[in-house]
């Protein structure tokens, strides 16, 4: 099977890269084993919340200089200061353009409300999320917080307590709809995805909007758990009906906003002309003369995928793009060079809130993001996203930023080389 570019892994990085390439006329395939980090994400995209030395970042565009100077292996340092800024500003417009509505800017981080009700700095948030520009204030005096009775992955009481510390009072409204009773018969069915399927039904929406209006009369915003909106138009319908801001707070995983984004980008990639092979895994590749010649997957057996370029976007440990053994970290498809501490004691700290060494282990690349094997770059193999070495997505708050920016940069490189 012949393509211009073969992308291995269909999470945020693989999809963004594939969409960009397909829109520019490339014939692309994404081969992806299964769920991605998006299915469990907050619904906000972090670019840079903290420098590796712990310094808080309010403006990623202003802080990037000091990061690129001090941490040369960081994916952002490989992009360089100028390219980082160009891509970050482009990415926020590009997401809107391809139909992922977001709020926020790389010029100044904003604050999203976490499932526990406190504020956390981020770059872009789903346009429907509760956010604030200030770290110690919310934009409302009194809010109505709703939750379906029996939904245990959302905590209105904790949220109300945190909101009070920020000067916002809350009324909590637990509600029921007859269709939710069917789920409630089995407590394990009361999960965000199942509730969304009920609340997204058009016949339940009018009852829900009536209830929201009635019970939020003395409040200036309606706060709702992000357990609806798998359907494209649900949130818009509610917003049109209620007479005040209707905003979501993420729940514990699975993430409805993340699942919706994954499905949306998947469909958009196919509409842009791409081929998405879901449920297939790449198991090995043939490399000759520092070029990937053939890629083999489980489902296609001896029939190889061939392409001018290959993008490896298989994620980190979570997605098995990286595998940890007792004494090493390896990349299973190409056997690329990886960076990790030889002394296993340096992999992790027992206090889970400390900086964990293993988080910044990953695949080594040159400054063009070509994967290295035995120290030499594979010229047509690019590495994008969470699998890369040199950054700690959790501590630095830069996970989605690294995935999106590396994917866009690699797409531009492939297009530039193809046009030469
Ligand atoms: C649980 C979790 C939650 C997160 N939440 C956030 C958040 O809220 N905000 C934020 O900024 N960052 C978050 N991150 C950081 C996250 O890494 C990035 O935001 C980003 O989504 C990662 O995208 P990716 O495409 O690089 O990797 P992934 O999303 O991990 O996607 C990799 C894909 O490759 C596939 N794959 C793996 N091996 C193969 C193979 N051999 N063949 C074919 N396919 C393969 C996997 O099935 C998967 O679909 C989170 C990370 C995790 C693990």
Shape: globular
CATH classification class of the largest domain:
Alpha Beta
Overall SS class: alpha/beta
Beta strand count? 22
Strand count, sense and barrel status of the largest sheet are: 6 strands, mixed
What number of structural domains do the residues give?
2
**CATH fourth-tier homologous superfamily of the largest domain:** FAD/NAD(P)-binding domain
Distance between the termini: 24 Å
Q: Name the strands of the widest sheet in spatial order.
A: 13-2-1-16-22-21
CATH topology of the largest domain: FAD/NAD(P)-binding domain
Architecture of the largest domain in CATH? 3-Layer(bba) Sandwich
Share of helix, binned: 25-40%
List keywords for this structure.
420 residues; alpha/beta; FAD/NAD(P)-binding domain; 2 domains; 4-stranded parallel beta sheet; 31% helix; globular; binds flavin-adenine dinucleotide
Describe the structure.
With 420 residues, this protein is α/β, with parallel strands linked by helices. It has two domains: 252 residues, FAD/NAD(P)-binding domain, CATH 3.50.50; 120 residues, Rossmann fold (3-Layer(aba) Sandwich). It contains twelve helices and 22 strands. α9 links the parallel β11 and β12. The protein is globular and about 70 Å long. It binds flavin-adenine dinucleotide (FAD). The site of flavin-adenine dinucleotide (FAD) has 36 residues, from α1, β2, β3 and α12. Flavin-adenine dinucleotide binds next to α1, β2, β3 and α12.
How do the strands and helices of this protein lay out in sequence?
Blueprint: E1 2-8, H1 12-23, E2 28-32, E3 44-45, H2 60-70, H3 75-79, H4 81-97, E4 102-103, E5 110-113, E6 119-122, E7 124-126, E8 131-132, E9 142-148, H5 156-165, E10 169-175, H6 178-184, H7 192-199, H8 202-215, E11 221-225, H9 234-241, E12 246-249, H10 256-271, E13 275-278, E14 282-288, E15 291-297, E16 306-312, E17 323-324, E18 329-330, E19 338-339, E20 362-363, E21 370-373, E22 376-383, H11 393-396, H12 399-418
Parallel strand pairs: 1-2, 1-16, 2-13, 9-10, 9-11, 11-12, 16-22
Antiparallel strand pairs: 3-7, 4-7, 5-6, 5-8, 14-15, 17-18, 19-20, 21-22
Helix pairs in contact: 1-10, 1-12, 2-4, 4-12, 8-9
The site of flavin-adenine dinucleotide has 36 residues, from helix 1, strand 2, strand 3 and helix 12.
């Amino acid at each position: 099977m012949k393509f211009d570019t073969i992308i291995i892994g269909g999470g945020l990085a693989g999809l963004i890269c594939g969409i960009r390439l397909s829109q520019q006329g490339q014939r692309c395939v994404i081969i992806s084993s299964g769920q991605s980090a998006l299915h469990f994400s907050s619904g906000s995209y972090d670019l840079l919340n903290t420098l590796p030395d712990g310094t808080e970042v309010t403006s990623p565009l202003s802080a990037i200089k000091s990061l690129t100077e001090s941490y040369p292996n960081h994916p952002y340092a490989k992009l360089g200061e100028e390219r980082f800024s160009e891509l970050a500003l482009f990415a926020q417009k590009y997401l809107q353009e391809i139909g992922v509505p977001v709020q926020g800017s790389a010029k100044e981080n904003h604050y999203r409300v976490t499932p526990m009700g406190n504020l956390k700095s981020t770059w872009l948030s789903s346009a429907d999320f509760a956010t604030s520009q200030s770290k110690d204030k919310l934009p409302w005096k009194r809010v109505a917080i709703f939750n379906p009775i029996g939904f245990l992955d959302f905590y209105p009481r904790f949220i109300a307590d945190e909101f009070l510390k920020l000067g916002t009072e809350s009324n909590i409204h637990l509600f029921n709809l007859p269709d939710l009773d069917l789920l409630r018969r089995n407590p394990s069915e009361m999960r965000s995805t199942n509730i969304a399927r009920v609340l997204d039904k058009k016949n339940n929406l009018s009852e829900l909007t009536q209830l929201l209006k009635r019970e939020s009369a003395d409040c200036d915003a309606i706060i709702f758990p992000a357990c609806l909106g798998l359907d494209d138009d649900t949130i818009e319908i509610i917003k049109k009906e209620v007479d005040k801001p209707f905003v979501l707070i993420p729940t514990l995983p699975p993430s409805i906003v993340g699942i919706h984004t994954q499905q949306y980008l998947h469909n958009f990639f196919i509409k842009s002309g791409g081929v998405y092979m879901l449920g297939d895994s790449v198991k090995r590749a043939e490399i000759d003369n520092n070029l990937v010649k053939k890629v083999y997957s489980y489902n296609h057996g001896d029939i190889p995928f061939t392409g001018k370029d290959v993008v490896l976007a298989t994620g980190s440990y979570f997605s098995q793009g990286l595998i940890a053994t007792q004494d090493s970290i390896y990349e299973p498809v190409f056997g690329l060079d990886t960076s990790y501490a030889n002394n296993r004691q340096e992999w992790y700290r027992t206090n889970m809130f400390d900086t964990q060494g293993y988080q910044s282990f990953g695949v080594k690349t040159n400054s063009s993001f070509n994967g290295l094997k035995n120290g030499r770059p594979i010229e047509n193999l690019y590495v994008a996203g969470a699998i890369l070495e040199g950054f700690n997505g959790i501590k630095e708050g830069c996970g989605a930023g690294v995935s999106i920016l590396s994917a866009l940069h690699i797409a531009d490189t492939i297009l530039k080389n193809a046009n030469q």
